[in-house]
Amino acid sequence: MRCAVMGAGAWGTALANLLAENGHDTVIWCLEPDVAESITNSAANPRFLPGAALAPTLRGTTDKATALDGAQLVLFAAPSHVLRDVTSHARGWMAPGATAVVATKGIERHSFALMTEVVEQELPGHAVVALSGPSFAAEVAEKHPTAVVAASAHAAAAVLVQQSFSAPYFRVYSSDDVVGVELGGALKNVMAVAAGMSDGLGLGFNTRAALITRGLAEMMRLGVTMGAHAQTFAGLAGMGDLVLTCTGSLSRNRQVGLEIGKGATLPEVLAGRETVAEGVVTTESAHELSRTRGVEMPIVNAVHRVLFEQQPARQALVELMSRDLRGERD
After folding, report:
1. pLDDT tens-digit readout, 93-152
2. Are 19 and 122 members of one domain?
3. Are 7 and 128 contained in the same domain?
4. Neighbours of 295 (CB within 10 A)
5. Which candidate in 64, 105, 188, 262 is catalytic?
6. Are residues 152 and 206 located together in one domain of the fold?
7. Could you give the number of structural domains in the chain?
8. Beta partners for 60?
9. What CATH number corresponds to the domain at position 33?
10. Is the CB of residue 152 less than 8 Å from the CB of residue 128?
11. Are residues 162 and 221 in the same domain?
12. Structural domain span for residue 271
């Protein structure tokens, strides 16, 4: 099958390589000319996925029309804040009947749209599938056993993605709970920033476990309010991705929190970073969304105060622990 991948960051590159190794004719659109050249001529992306040996059949290009020409499956892996722009520019070259896959995790600022909603709005008439789950790009490139979930309102599209991406080391489950899968993938990044702050403060495993568990409760609370299935948050896109991102040393979001917990400011942490930590953007969106929906999300609010209101991380944690006592299932 002819496939296009829009976005040559670490995750886009790892997924494009997976498609190519599965025998699909795959082209990846790259913003940076040096990345396109390196992928095509050296089977490598040292800028965003260093050390990974890519399939020699994988090709890179900086031209969207070339990437999308005849593609039956188009995967979008651009950062959340530019996904709408990338998708909008792709519209004119999308083949009729092509399936759109969204590997971006986040909630759009101001509109509060989930990433699949952004793509649906920009590509009317195309089936859209969310691909999410506990998966560091570097480990997928190294063929470490990984399991993710493909969620769509179109059952046939979810099965197509499941079959296209599945490999001996990459297992794909299907789901019809797009909202739950999307929210799990987005909100876990905020919780990872919180867990990183805790680790940066040197507060130990008890604190991290409490943040992960209560963070999951917040994610589920918002998700159910928005129509998601509670059970989804116990699955790969919920608990699975949450645990990975809150504890894994490869997590960019945890790393941001870690540095802030050690005393750095957000501008200092973000200065010079070429890769995006989606948890920072999603914190703003989730903070406003929870207020709009009337859903209590104390950890999200605490992270927002630290990142954007200059509250010290230790003080934010003290306030979390000093909240009124309540029943666990309230």
Report:
1. 999 999 999 999 999 999 999 999 999 999 999 999 999 999 999 999 999 999 999 999
2. yes
3. yes
4. 17
5. 188
6. no
7. 2
8. 28
9. 3.40.50.720
10. yes
11. no
12. 184-321
Residue 190 lies in a domain: yes
**Domain edge (last residue) among 125, 144, 176:** 176
Q: Are residues 171 and 188 located together in one domain of the fold?
A: no
Q: Each residue of 219-268: pLDDT tens digit?
A: 999 999 999 999 999 999 999 999 999 999 999 999 999 999 999 999 99
| 188 catalytically annotated | yes
Q: At 197, list the tokens.
A: 């702050």
Between the alpha carbon of residue 219 and those of residues 68, 179, 188, 229, 316, the distances in Å are 35, 11, 8, 11, 19
* SS3 labels along the chain: CEEEEECCCHHHHHHHHHHHHCCCEEEEECCCHHHHHHHHHHCCECCCECCCCCCCCCEEECCHHHHHCCCCEEEECCCHHHHHHHHHHHHHHCCCCCEEEECCCCECCCCCCEHHHHHHHHCCCCCEEEEECCCCHHHHHCCCCEEEEEECCCHHHHHHHHHHHCECCEEEEEECCHHHHHHHHHHHHHHHHHHHHHHHCCCHHHHHHHHHHHHHHHHHHHHHHCCCCHHHHHCHHHHHHHHHHHHCCCCHHHHHHHHHHCCCCHHHHHCCCCCCCHHHHHHHHHHHHHHHHCCCCHHHHHHHHHHHCCCCHHHHHHHHHCCCCCCCCC
Assess contact for 283 and 291: CB atoms under 8 A. Answer: no
Q: Which two tokens stand for residue 145?
A: 């056993």
CA–CA dist 292, 280 (Å, integer): 19
Are 140 and 247 in a shared domain?
Answer: no
Last residue of a domain, one of 157, 176, 195: 176
Neighbours of 235 (CB within 10 A): 20
pTM exceeds cut of 0.90: yes
Report how far residue 188's alpha carbon sits from residue 264's, in angstroms, rounded to the nearest whole number. Answer: 22
pLDDT digits (tens, 9 = 90+) for 260-291: 999 999 999 999 787 878 999 999 999 999 99
The verdict on residue 328 lying in a domain is no
